[in-house]
Automatic annotation (TrEMBL):
The gene is recD. SUPFAM superfamilies: P-loop containing nucleoside triphosphate hydrolases (SSF52540). This is RecBCD enzyme subunit RecD. It comes from the Bacteria. It comes from Thalassotalea euphylliae. InterPro entries: AAA+_ATPase, Coronavir_polyprotein_1ab, P-loop_NTPase, RecD, RecD_N, UvrD-like_helicase_C. Belongs to the RecD family. Its EC number is 5.6.2.3. Heterotrimer of RecB, RecC and RecD. All subunits contribute to DNA-binding. Residues 1-22 are annotated as: Disordered.
Amino acid sequence: MSAEIDNNQKQSCQRPNRQTKSYRKFSEAAARISDIAPIDYFFANELTTATAANELTADEKEVWYHLLIALSASVRDGHTCLPLMHVAGQQFGLASDDNVITHHGFSFPNEKQLHTLLASIPFLAASELGVTQPNISNAEKAEVNVGGTLAVVFEHNCLYMRRNYQFEKELKLALVAKTQLTLGYTPAAITDVVDSLFPENGAIEPNQATCANHANQAREVDWQKLAVANSVNKGLSIIAGGPGTGKTYTVTKLLAALSMLSQSRLDIALVAPTGKAAQRLSESIQNAVTGFRGVIADNVLDVIPSKAQTLHRLLGVIPNQVNFRKGSDNPLDYDVIIIDEVSMVDLPLMTRLFRVIPAKCQVVMLGDADQLPSVALGSVLADIAVRPHLGYSKANLNYLAKACQLSSEQAKQLPKAKKQVADHLSMLLKSRRFDGEGAIGNIAMATIAGEALQSWQYISVNSTSRDDITLLPPVMTQWLNQYVKRYYQPVLEAENITQAFERMSQFRILCATRVGNEGVEVINQQIISLLKGSYQQDKLFHGLPIMINENHYGLGLYNGDIGIIWKNAQGHLVAYFEDTAVSEGGVSSKNQTPGFKTIIPSRLPSFEPVFAMTIHKTQGSEFEHVAMVLPSKADNQLLTRELIYTGVTRAKKKLSLSCNEPVWYRGVDAKVERYSNLSI
Ligand SMILES: Nc1ncnc2c1ncn2[C@@H]1O[C@H](COP(=O)(O)OP(=O)(O)OP(=O)(O)O)[C@@H](O)[C@H]1O
């Protein structure tokens, strides 16, 4: 340890009433640090030993040891790194129950002292970590070859696990490189094409009858038109917006614009993170293309693919390996890649994807940055689609004003960059699904703005005056039975599997948690008891909806895929899955029902009933009616603004809520924050 820490500082590294300097067993650590997991304990033990920490004093070693625990816990929570400022001077792992301290935690010294301590740890310099330029094969090797040197990096005032640092750095380089790609279409050609796709009189809009005030519309910026103009010439664009803001509609026009501008026929890939999201993207693109037939030339529309695929399919999964068939020596070959539901894509997957995107390829990302981040590491979309918009550069503002032929009044509405520039980002704000009167839309908007009181008022007022919002009675049995009879009994009684799937898409119970009385497991058991008279674990029955819990590449089934157990023509219970999965390869058989694939239950990977499912797992799906069940206690860590927003916006027409007022306030107040340094 350097001599820079004076005695006073050393004093503050020491904590009074502390017997042990390290924990001999995990149980000792768990008794002191709340929410510690075994992996945190073992990671800290391994790394403290591996670090050349011999030069540290016992107290300094102890601080280092707890920093490693905090880093591991932070990564478990989905953060890419651990910013020092989030632990400096804090009592880490302190917890209490009813004002009685249950875990005393560990007291970290202040940031200056932490810096002095970290200065004596032999971290590798960032330049030694093998990531210095985008799309290099070294990055793949570096990802695998993590042994030998210290597995922790200290950069940007943050501690990183080395692999995560490499992912972030590599992706950032790749994104920045993409922002430097321009397609070279001339401004005059772009203006003509954009104008033809968005004529002022709106003749091209299929739903024009629903547009009310033309005079106002002429004054408002058409943000969809702006998004097309902003994306058409750029290597990287992000079109972000809430549900029903027309992201898919806009990207279909963007593809039409590219097809009109390009001299040659474009190779376009449509991808999404899950099978369900890929299926929805296919349907939305097909609907948009059908709507444009007759107004956009067929040869232009014919270039747009009608089928989307999953990211895993695009990259080519190798069973039981983290790496994909596609690699830097075997890259993709597309001119344009559209990635939907980007909020669900984690940092490692996005990095691996960018590693195989060729330099000439345009990338367009679509998503709702207000939704929950990926279940795994990072929050790529939220990091690169910063809200509110950071603003456009002067050059981009001039270009957009010309390309979209904006009046000076309209040009003033565009966001102007102050410190940072976000030329790659287009935001769509007007929901076409939730009109101004729509209570669901109002609740969603107030929630994401953090207006707990306002959003609760929308719920309580509307639940007495409108039938699209219902506040459910606090005792679950008072409402569960009627929903089971109305929505789930008919699934069991459907005439065929197509009808069963249709009926399942009408309604879903969404929970914040898996466990506990308000969790998925208990509610599924209760529903099965109501339907079958009793609950028997693992007992399959005709009409049981199931969700797959792990990827099975051989069968073409992915974590989150939904199927229904159904009697086939031979009277055997088999699992049916809708046909996106079929297009993903895997199994086919002579006895397939068209549009479905069937798999015998004994071959299925791990699955569970899905009458109720977690809000996390519903990303990329929507239902006519959603009943959202939140925990009864406000101290639940899973309860966040993004979770509530994601749950609310899964409902297309009706939303029923089982939730009390304090829980709602606490949830709307708790904004998800994921630590990273990915901004571009
Ligand atoms: N400018 C427009 N004029 C008429 N209809 C539109 C326009 N923009 C979008 N729509 C319609 O609004 C609906 C929602 O659009 P779209 O599916 O593109 O939204 P999205 O943002 O992709 O939704 P999601 O969040 O569900 O993915 C569609 O029916 C679409 O046809």
